[in-house]
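In the design runs reported in the main text, the only information available to the sequence generator was the tokenized backbone. The following block is the verbatim input for one such run; it is reproduced so that readers can re-run the procedure and compare outputs position by position.
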């Protein structure tokens, strides 16, 4: 991937999360100025206050930014999906995106690009059928959230800002996210498939996720949905085998589907669901994956 040599001023929401922290480090390492949006009064020059629940953003703090990467949102797998938490998942995404889009649209000189982190949840359960960005939204809770989430960026688009929706897969990282929970289990030798293991998991290494987000910022031709997932989706059974190979641990344990439904509630349908999603537009735009296979991604995270 070729990165822009021009120094940019980039604002990031969700900068304290797994992906956000890695993105901020990457941008700053290359000499870019980074503003972090925080949900309290700004305490330093690199902070901008916002409150997505109140649709509030200190727009004055965003004057002069070249790009915004919006990654904030309640964790999908953080808690059992009660009705209250499902509302929090939805509101954190839709209200947050609305707040950012409206604030950017209000600027006399808005930024060139808004990269909105969304999710492969847009597609719902695709079974063994491979899909790319041309596929319609699926059915169910997460697809409905993703549809509202992406639509909430409309004020920015109407203001002439290029908006790219980064539909991210399962990020392979040892220090957080869904995979951060898998590593200790597999290292202890008690990992195994979930359900029958035939469901596809569309993954991406943390390194490639950050590189792809930066690619979206720097590539003027990329607007609309872009899948951020490795080019070779694999089944949960294949993930299990790869974790065993890389970590050199047995993978004989398995969690039956009924147990997952008891433990996770409604979220179990997404753990057991299958998403075979391909990064069509990312590849067409010339993006090169550093860790394209599941073994590559796991080794990078484990190392």
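Verbatim output:
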């Amino acid at each position: 991937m070729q990165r822009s040599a021009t120094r940019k001023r980039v604002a990031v929401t969700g900068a304290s999360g797994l992906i956000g922290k890695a993105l901020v480090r990457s941008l700053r390492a290359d000499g870019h100025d980074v503003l972090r949006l925080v949900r309290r009064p700004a305490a330093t020059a690199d902070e901008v206050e916002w409150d997505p629940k109140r649709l509030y953003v200190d727009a004055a703090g965003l004057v002069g930014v070249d790009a915004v990467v919006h990654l904030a949102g309640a964790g999908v797998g953080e808690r059992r999906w009660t009705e209250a938490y499902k509302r929090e998942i939805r509101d954190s995404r839709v209200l947050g995106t609305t707040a950012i889009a409206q604030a950017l649209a209000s600027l006399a000189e808005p930024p060139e690009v808004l990269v909105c982190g969304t999710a492969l949840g847009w597609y719902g359960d695709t079974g063994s059928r491979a899909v790319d960005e041309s596929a319609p939204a699926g059915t169910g809770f997460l697809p409905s959230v993703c549809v509202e989430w992406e639509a909430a960026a409309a004020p920015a688009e109407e203001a002439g800002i290029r908006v790219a929706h980064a539909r991210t897969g399962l990020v392979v990282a040892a220090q957080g996210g869904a995979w951060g929970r898998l590593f200790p289990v597999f290292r202890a030798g008690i990992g195994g498939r979930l359900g029958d293991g035939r469901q596809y998991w569309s993954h991406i290494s943390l390194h490639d996720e950050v590189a792809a987000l930066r690619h979206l910022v720097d590539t003027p031709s990329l607007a609309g949905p872009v899948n951020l997932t490795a080019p070779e989706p694999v089944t949960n059974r294949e993930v299990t085998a790869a974790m065993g190979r890389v970590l050199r641990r047995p993978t004989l344990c398995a969690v039956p589907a009924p147990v997952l439904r008891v433990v996770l509630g409604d979220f179990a349908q997404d753990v057991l669901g299958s998403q075979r999603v391909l990064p069509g537009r990312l590849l067409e735009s010339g993006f090169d994956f550093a860790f394209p296979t599941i073994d590559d991604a796991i080794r990078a995270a484990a190392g």
